[in-house]
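Cross-check.
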Amino acid sequence: MSVSTYVTDPNHTFVHFGVRHFGASTVHARFDDVAGKVTLDHAGRAATADITVQMTSVDSGIPYFNAHLCSPEFFDVIKFPTARFVSKHATFNGDTPASVEGELTLMGQTHPVTLTCTNSAVYDNPLHQAEVCGGDFTATLKRSQWGINWGLEMGVPDDVVLEIQIEAIKQ
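Predicted model, tokenized:
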């Protein structure tokens, strides 16, 4: 197999995050507008990804919380309308991706992030009549690294669990 390029399927690609809420429960939200491309070199066991998130697409299911997340206290979406992940290196366990190392640009700052693959597949999708690659990836981030500090002094944790659900269609 040669190198293949895939474009994200907007109906099956989302970025989710969760943060503990004063130790009582976990608050979750997701970004609904995520786009990008993935390349896979099956023979060489290599992969790249370039994914952009529209920050205004955040959805917690609670309108006033969505507005707070979009405010300067959190994502400041007027000043920073997008976030972007660009991979630098992928590791494989046999033919299966194990992790993807890259850089996440959020709030105008770029820092390294390693995503762990928890599930993946390449399959022939009967609806698209094309090959699709996809997977679930996760990482735990320190939000303060990107300057998102709201609530830290009140006990809202710095750790945020990032989960990426992605499927992309071969071009």
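The domain at 3-170 is CATH 2.40.128.110 (Lipocalin). The longest strand covers residues 109-125. Passed to J.P. for a second look.
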